User: Which sequence fits this backbone?
């Protein structure tokens, strides 16, 4: 019995000390791991933030460039038919879109969806106006696009730009 008591007397404190040491070490390692993760996130944010800012800028430029006023101001449409102007406008929108596709990696899913919606809505507007002005001139077609666009209370382009600005406020 004496030996058993001595074993217990030495074993129990050793087990308690081992348990305490384990808890302290596990908390230390957990804290150290969190610190490393924070440092990695900080470095990641430093490197990715400029790219994200640039992406938001590029998408704002894209939206401005596909607005009907901007699209039509860049066109020479004297002597064109409605269908020729229609094809040029769609070609310009798709070219701008393809040029900016990679920006979706850097902007929020919501912002990307709004930008895509603005593009599709602009294409739909152009298609609808082309069908309405099919027998008219390119100038009448352009006028119809502008009038229809300006009569829209809050255009999808304006909504998308608002979302981009809102996201930028959260980033920067």
Assistant:
């Amino acid at each position: 019995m004496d030996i058993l008591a001595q074993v217990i007397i030495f074993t129990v404190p050793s087990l308690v000390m081992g348990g305490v040491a384990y808890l302290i070490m596990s908390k230390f390692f957990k804290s150290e791991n969190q610190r490393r993760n924070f440092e990695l996130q900080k470095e990641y944010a430093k490197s990715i933030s400029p790219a994200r800012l640039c992406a938001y800028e590029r998408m704002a430029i894209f939206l401005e460039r596909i607005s009907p006023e901007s699209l039509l101001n860049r066109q020479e449409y004297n002597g064109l038919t409605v269908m020729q102007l229609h094809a040029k406008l769609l070609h310009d929108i798709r070219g701008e879109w393809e040029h900016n596709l990679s920006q979706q990696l850097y902007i929020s899913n919501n912002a990307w969806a709004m930008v895509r919606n603005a593009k599709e809505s602009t294409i739909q507007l152009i298609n609808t106006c082309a069908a309405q002005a099919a027998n008219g001139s390119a100038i009448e077609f352009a006028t119809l696009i502008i009038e229809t666009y300006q009569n829209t209370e809050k255009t999808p382009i304006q909504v998308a730009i608002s979302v981009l600005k809102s996201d930028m406020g959260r980033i920067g």
